[in-house]
Amino acid sequence: MSERRAVVIGGAGFLGKRLVTMLGGGDGSLEPSPAWPRFDHVHVLDQAPYSENPPTRLHREQRGVGLSTATGDIRSKSDLRSALEGAHTVFHLASLVDVGLKKNPAIEEVNVVGTRNVIEVCHELGVPFLVYTSTEDVVFSETPVAGGDESLPYPEKPLHDYVRTKIEGERAILAADGKKGLRTCAIRPVHIYGPDDPHAMIESLEAFAERRVPFLLGNGSARFDVVHVDNVAHGHLLAAARLHDPETRDRIGGRAYFVGEGHAPNYFDFLRPFADACGIQMPSVRLPGPVVLLVAQAMELVHRVTGADVPFHRFHYHILVKDFFFSHANAERDLGYTPIISKERAMAQTIEWVRTLGLR
To answer: Lesser CB count within 10 Å: N end or C end of the chain?
Structure first.
């Protein structure tokens, strides 16, 4: 191909925007790594419009990297064909994250059918490389995980549809490696945080600020894995570079890798600096683990009897009250991965952003 074209499916999301920024040469807050692959053009496909800030655009244009965007849906092969035509490397980040107990047909359509569509269109168009964003949750079960690695099996009976559909998506991606000229691998980020994080951290801080949660869960000993968004994007870029290299692609092709930063505090200890920065008083009372489990089971019973969605169930119990953290040693060995943002810098950067949100 005369032009190396990267396509980021889900590029308007939290992780996707940082990956697009880094593909274009960064935004001044982070120097591009020489280990990252070089692309001439980046195309973004997402259901939401992609917006680029001026520093990102300036650095991208200085590096001579073109950018195009389109709105579309991975459930549509037509949308995928338009986006993936001429692609050298596809980063498939699009996913529906829904851990509620109410059945959501879209989670199957996006996470499973949509992922199979991506694979089929890559095969159809002769795309050579595909990097998939999986999740640590593909090995989630009711057994605690302390420093787990990629040898952990998928659970026989996934506790939740989100877990099941991400397992099926990852399996499809890894099974596609080496077929019809396509080489694939998967990145399993642990819990991602950083500026512009729309996920659990902000929801938890809002709940404490509004005093909707009067206690902390568990005895404080459970460890919960976190990773800054830039470190996850870095892992994706290293995976692509290793797939491109004939000397390393057979080693990583068809494999999945946990990506973290060796930062696994108790979830509520992780939240405390952000709460302090906003002047939010976190509860001092702790609810013991067995009581938390009873609450989770009671809420599941309410759901079964009434059909109502509930804010808490066993998925949350096992992640927040039991150990759930991983080793990224295999990513270090095979991808050359080490975090590019230290824990201290990542926390400071995110605290500075949280202060701008006006949470009280």
So the answer is: C
In this model, does residue 1 exceed pLDDT 90?
A: no
Torsion angles phi and psi, residue 137, rounded to 5: -70, -10
Asked if residues 129 and 251 have their Cβ atoms less than 8 Å apart, the reply is: no
Look at the block and give the residue holding tokens 């067995």. 290
Determine the Cα–Cα distance for residues 9 and 5; give it in Å rounded to an integer: 13
Nearest one of 154, 175, 136 to 253, comparing CA atoms: 175
| Encoded tokens for 177 | 């490696």
pTM, two decimals, is 0.96
Tokens of 175: 């099974």
pLDDT, tens only, 4-56: 999 999 999 999 999 999 999 988 888 889 999 999 999 999 999 999 999 99
Q: Is the pLDDT of residue 309 over 70?
A: yes
- Distances in Å between the Cα of 107 and the Cα atoms of 75, 80, 122, 164, 341 are 11, 18, 22, 10, 32
- Helices (H), ranges, the chain: 14-23, 54-62, 77-84, 105-108, 115-125, 161-175, 200-209, 229-244, 249-252, 267-278, 289-306, 314-321, 329-335, 343-355
Contact 207, 215 (CB under 8 A): no
String of DSSP letters for 280-348: ------EE-HHHHHHHHHHHHHHHHHH----S--HHHHHHHHS-EEE--HHHHHHH----SS-HHHHHH
Residue with the bigger pLDDT between 110 and 103: it is: 110
Q: Scan for tokens 């244009």, then name that residue.
A: 61
Residues 6 or more apart whose CB falls under 8 angstroms from that of 219 comprise 286, 288, 289
For residues 58-86, average pLDDT = 97
Q: Assess contact for 184 and 251: CB atoms under 8 A.
A: no
CB atoms within 10 A of CB 80: 25
Closest among 100, 76, 58 to 307, alpha carbons compared? 100
Going by pLDDT thresholds of 50, 70 and 90, the confidence category of residue 271 is very high
Task: Give the span between the Cα atoms of 225 and 263, in whole angstroms.
Answer: 6
